[in-house]
Amino acid sequence: MTAEELRTIIAAGLPCDHLEVEGDGRHWSAVIVSADFAGMRPVQRHQRVYATLGARMHTDEVHALSMKTFTPTEWAAHPH
Fold first, then answer.
1. Which domain of life does the protein's organism represent (predicted)?
2. Three-class HEC string of the chain
């Protein structure tokens, strides 16, 4: 899997205002900004992203995914 493929999968299942994905084909890191995260705890946000990946997490197609998740308001206040 490429970073672009993973980005496309996440974006198809979760409306994102900003999405960055980096990795080596199995181990990934992502910065995800979505209004859907409003009112969610961090673990709920991660579960929401994992839901977009579905079986890919269980088949080792995506071995590991480290995430930083933000709402648009949080992202606007975040130094980047």
1. Bacteria
2. CCHHHHHHHHHHHCCCCEEEEEECCCEEEEEEECHHHCCCCHHHHHHHHHHHHHHHHCCCCCCEEEEEEECHHHHHHCCC
Extract the tokens encoding 74: 């949080």
* Domain enclosing residue 38, as ranges: 3-77
**Tens of pLDDT along 22-72?**
998 888 999 999 999 999 999 999 999 999 988 887 777 788 899 999 999
Number of domains within the chain:
1
How much is the pTM?
0.91
In CATH, what number is assigned to the domain containing residue 35?
Answer: 3.30.300.90
